[in-house]
Write a structure and sequence with these properties.
Elements (H helix, E strand, L loop, with lengths): L1 H21 L1 E2 L1 H8 L3 H13 L3 E4 L2 E4 L2 H4 L7 H11 L7 E5 L3 H4 L10 E5 L13 E5 L3 E3 L4 E3 L1 H8 L3 E7 L2 E3 L3 E4 L2 H12 L1 E8 L11 E4 L6 E5 L4 H8 L4 E5 L5 E3 L1
Parallel strand pairs: 4-5, 4-9, 5-6, 9-12, 12-14, 14-15
Antiparallel strand pairs: 1-3, 2-3, 7-8, 10-11, 11-13, 15-16
Length: 262
C-alpha cells in the first residue's frame, strides 16, 4: 500500500513537472508521456485540480502558476470553503469573533447560521461581503496595506487591546511543529498574536494543505496556542499526527461533512 501511494505521488509530481515545463497538454498526451491509462490520468487530474495545482479546460489542462507567484491569495477555493464551513460550527449566538486577514478565515462569514454575532477584523475585504442585519461589524482601523487590503499598525493594535473575543479564526502562511504558525508580514504577526491572546474560548487555525509543514518569515504563535487546526484531506497524515501531539486537535476535512480527527 505504501509503495502504491508513493508511486501515485511520484506520478502526480511528474504530471506537474511536465505541465510546468510545457505549459499545457491534453489528457491523451499525458497518458502517452507517462505510459499509463487515460482513466488513471483522469483520476490524477481530478485530484490535482481539486488541490488547485492545475487548471482544466475543455480538451486540455494547464499548470497553475498562480500557486507560485501569489501563494497566499491563490489557492484551492473549494477546499478553503470546506475549511471555512466547518470552522463556522464553533461560533455560537452572541459571540464576538476575531477574524484576521486570511481569505479562508474571512470565508467563515458565508456559513454562519447564528442570528447575532459581533465580528472584529483587520481585513478590509469584509466590506465587500454579504452583511447580515443582526450582525455587528467592527474594523480595527489602522494603516492600510495594499494590495492585500489589511489594516495594521498602532491604531489596529490599540483597538484590539481594548477588546476580548469568544472565538478567533486565524489563517497563516505556514504551520510547523518546529517553527510554529508563521506569516509573511511582520505587522500582521503582531495583530494575529494579539487576537489569539485576547480570545477567551476557542482559538481556531485554518490552513489548507499547501501551508502545512511550511515556515514563513514571522512567527505568530506556537501551534499549541490553538485549540483546533482545520485543514483539508490532502494534509499529510504524518505531519497532522505530529501537530496533534502538541495538544491541538487536528481536523482534516474530506468530502464535507466527513472528517478525520487526531
Amino acid at each position: 500500500m505504501k509503495n502504491s501511494l508513493k508511486s501515485i505521488e511520484k506520478r502526480r509530481k511528474a504530471i506537474l513537472d511536465i505541465l510546468e515545463a510545457r505549459k499545457q497538454l491534453t489528457t491523451l498526451e499525458l497518458s502517452s508521456e507517462l505510459n499509463v491509462s487515460l482513466s488513471t490520468i483522469r483520476r490524477d487530474l481530478n485530484v490535482l485540480e481539486k488541490k488547485n495545482d492545475i487548471i482544466r479546460k475543455y480538451g486540455y489542462c494547464l499548470f497553475n502558476y498562480k500557486n507560485k507567484t501569489n501563494f497566499d491569495e491563490s489557492g484551492p477555493l473549494r477546499l478553503k470553503q470546506q475549511i471555512a464551513r466547518y470552522a463556522s460550527r464553533y461560533v455560537n449566538d452572541y459571540d464576538t469573533l476575531f477574524i484576521n486577514s486570511s481569505s479562508t478565515a474571512l470565508a467563515i462569514l458565508n456559513y454562519l447560521t447564528v442570528k447575532h454575532v459581533t465580528i472584529v477584523t483587520n481585513n478590509l475585504k469584509v466590506v465587500a461581503t454579504t452583511h447580515q442585519p443582526n450582525y455587528s461589524y467592527i474594523l480595527t482601523g489602522g494603516e492600510l496595506r495594499i494590495p492585500k487590503e489589511v489594516l495594521v499598525g498602532d491604531i489596529a493594535t490599540r483597538t484590539l487591546m481594548d477588546m476580548n473575543a469568544d472565538i478567533c479564526v486565524i489563517g497563516c502562511s505556514g504551520v510547523s511543529v518546529e517553527n510554529g504558525v508563521t506569516t509573511k508580514i511582520l505587522n500582521e504577526s503582531k495583530i494575529n498574536e494579539l487576537m489569539i491572546n485576547k480570545t477567551r474560548r476557542s482559538k481556531i487555525l485554518v490552513a489548507d494543505h499547501r501551508k502545512i509543514g511550511l515556515t514563513s518569515k514571522f512567527k505568530i504563535a506556537d501551534v499549541s496556542s490553538f485549540d483546533y487546526l482545520i485543514t483539508d484531506q490532502f494534509c499529510p497524515t504524518k505531519i497532522a499526527k505530529e501537530i496533534s501531539e502538541t495538544g491541538i486537535k487536528v481536523i482534516r476535512i474530506k468530502d464535507f461533512p466527513a472528517i478525520e480527527l487526531f
